[in-house]
Amino acid sequence: MEIIIRPTAEHAARLVARLVVARVRTTPRLVLGCATGRTMDPVYAELTAAHRAGEVDLSRLTTFNLDEYVGLPPEDPRSYRRYMRERFFEPVGLPASSTHLPDGMAPDLAAAARQYEQRIAAAGGIDLQLLGLGVTGHIGFNEPLSSLMSRTREKALTLETRQQNAELFGGDSKAVPKRAVTMGVGTILDAREVIMLVTGGAKAAVLAVATEGPITARISATALQLHPRCAVIVDEAAAAELEGLEYYRFLYAEEPEWAPYRADPDL
Ligand code: GLP
């Protein structure tokens, strides 16, 4: 794992978008794992802008989202399908047949979850998985004590998670569905590359625990420490409680792989 610290949330999101663009340039039919949440909004805005400006063609991607609420139809404005369609799929011209989200409306959720895993496998696996970080330290909706080997399945949401995501539900955490279908921690770890974006002071404490603390099923993001190719891109506010700050700053300033990015004042 590498932690990369950028001055602001905008810089951090732009760097994530730039990394996605670089991967798509080498692999135009990239299989991209998508995340939702406010943190990801500027990433999709940047990607859409790059596509429209003709800098990259994102219309040939195949996408698999991390998660979806149980019981929200795809047309519901609060569903993750709708979030993705508005912010990313439609603006870059991705046909519905290339985009996948877990089916939270399936009569048999367990069977649909197994089928989701099969679809990922049939696409050749996920090349690059994007992640945000939940307030409980979850990735996807892998709430505390999710098995670190788990696969896509239905999961009950914690109260904290429902409070964190209440904004889209009129601020009422009781209106947030109690369950979701999410890729498992094992599913996420199978991606060939992972990039997690974490911004804002509210995530500083959980980011330090997730990246520098011991690996534990209580905090599913700690499993990323096992991943061979994982970058955690953060802003200064989120980095505030990290112990290894000096080394992380050194990585971005000195490591050759970051050279093309650090020369750019926008990043
Ligand atoms: C939800 C999603 C996570 C996401 C998290 C962070 O819980 N299931 O995948 O990382 O929200 O959301 P935000 O970016 O709005 O803080």
Q: Would you write up a description of this structure?
A:
With 267 residues, the chain is an alpha/beta fold. The chain has ten helices and ten strands. It has a seven-stranded parallel β-sheet. Helix 1 (9-26) crosses helix 2. It is globular. 2-amino-2-deoxy-6-O-phosphono-alpha-D-glucopyranose is lined by residues 35-39, 66-67, 132-134, 140-141, 161, 165.
Shape: globular
Placed side by side, the strands forming the largest sheet appear as 1-10-9-6-2-3-5
What is the CATH-assigned architecture?
3-Layer(aba) Sandwich
- Uncertain regions spanning at least 5 consecutive residues: none
Task: Provide a short characterization of the protein structure.
With 267 residues, the chain is α/β, with parallel strands linked by helices. The chain has helices spanning 9-26, 41-52, 80-89, 109-122, 159-164, 185-189, 204-212, 236-239, 245-254, 259-262, and strands at 2-6, 31-34, 62-65, 67-69, 99-100, 128-131, 153-156, 179-182, 193-198, 230-235.
Reconstruct the topology from this structure.
Layout: E1 2-6, H1 9-26, E2 31-34, H2 41-52, E3 62-65, E4 67-69, H3 80-89, E5 99-100, H4 109-122, E6 128-131, E7 153-156, H5 159-164, E8 179-182, H6 185-189, E9 193-198, H7 204-212, E10 230-235, H8 236-239, H9 245-254, H10 259-262
Parallel strand pairs: 1-10, 2-3, 2-6, 3-5, 6-9, 9-10
Antiparallel strand pairs: 4-8, 7-8
Helix pairs in contact: 1-2
The chain binds 2-amino-2-deoxy-6-O-phosphono-alpha-D-glucopyranose.
